[in-house]
Design brief:
D-Maltodextrin-Binding Protein, domain 2; 19% strand; 2 domains; 11 strands; alpha/beta; single chain
Length: 321
Amino acid sequence: MRTLVSLAAASLLALATSSAALAEFPEKPITIVVSAQPGGSPDILARIIGQHLSARIGQPVVVENRSGGAGAVANQHVASQPADGYTLLGTSDTLGINVTFFPDQGDPREKFTPVIQAMSSPQVLAVRADLPIADLAQYIEAAKAEAEIVSVAVPGVTTAGNLLALVLEAQAAIDLNIAVYPSAQPSLDDVLGGHVDSVFVTLGPALPHIQAGKLRAIAVTTPERTPSLPDVPTFRELGLDGVTSTSWQGYFAPAGTPPEVIAKLNAEINAVLQDPAAREQLLSNAFDPAGGTPEELGKLFDAGVTFWNKIITDNNVQIQN
């Protein structure tokens, strides 16, 4: 009987300790690791989320840029951290794309636990404003004049921008000169510098340049027009339904993170996404606030693995060493 009482007391003590730890979480800064360089879409998003999350939880939220390896550097770093909720991976649909490209890196579903989808956004095809290309029809016409005469910058092989550029080639029967960059900002820099004709990228980093008149947006990938660019048609409207996709970004924690910690992080970030000031800041950067449950992010990830696998397979996309 004494043993049973001791075990029960130990169980109650462990439960009380766990509850107390959760009530005090977080007790130190939280780090969001992104694979993008500064100025890239995941970096911009993480800094907005981090600013408002920090105000809610009373702890600093640090954004750490670990670019390289098509996201592998950031992924491997976060997967190796303690499963305590203090290190999060800020990632995108690229995480699902990489399942097909890098099967040897293991299944992200075994390395990470979903926390929350933070936003959705279109990819945008935009051309330099000094080019005599007013719309997608003229873009395709120019590309058909000569193979690879029209160049397009994309922020990495394993990104939605690159894969959708390949779909555009197939659907429009054109051959683009696709220039691959390590992140969104370098790709935009070369387009703005006059070295590349166009860019296929998440709308957020490109939007300020579109608004400033330096780039001309000619189509977006979402099923419906985006409120950020209401006058820009969708690829679907223009008869290229295959170039239809909504990009997402969200947060994952290392596998094994306690469910109570995941639930608290989810609740706090959901609250940030509903905050009027945060929403205004997100929308001004072309991020459509999302939110929801960890389970919903998990389902979104699974659907993306299937969607992108078909595009990669159908277009025989290969990683060039």
